[in-house]
Design brief:
Length: 130
């Protein structure tokens, strides 16, 4: 059977399971099911979940609203990893429960840097129409 891959190089199945995990984690955080003062006082966005090829490991990229207290929020997420893994195992039907690893999402910062570079006078002079 031929393996179907997306343009990013990951299989469609990995992307689909990653999205399911992302939705579960987003719902748990939005509903406030976690009994943690830090997570209840901060709005946290789950921006992406990347699954390993064997679906046993998931890297979860998160970003607190406005990027405030990022390290404190990451510490709280890592403290409650067992709870999140249990919720994911219960709600996502896979053979193995995925081990979650929480990381800060740096893509917004990278996008901001690129936007700042594009707005510099040296670069913007090339973008003007003649």
């Amino acid at each position: 059977m031929k393996k179907i891959e997306s343009p990013e190089g990951r299989s469609v199945r990995l992307l689909r399971v990653g999205e399911q995990v992302r939705h579960v984690l987003s719902e748990v955080l939005a509903r406030g099911d976690v009994h943690d003062a830090t997570l209840q006082s901060h709005l946290v966005s789950v921006t992406e979940v990347r699954m390993s090829p064997d679906l046993r490991h998931a890297t979860v990229f998160v970003k607190p609203l406005l990027g405030q207290d990022e390290e404190v929020v990451l510490k709280a997420l890592r403290t409650n990893t067992a709870f999140f893994q249990g919720e994911v195992a219960r709600r996502v039907n896979t053979k193995y429960a995925a081990k979650l690893k929480f990381l800060a999402d740096e893509s917004f910062d990278e996008g901001g840097k690129i936007d700042q570079i594009l707005r510099t006078p040296h670069v913007s002079q090339d973008l003007t129409e003649e």
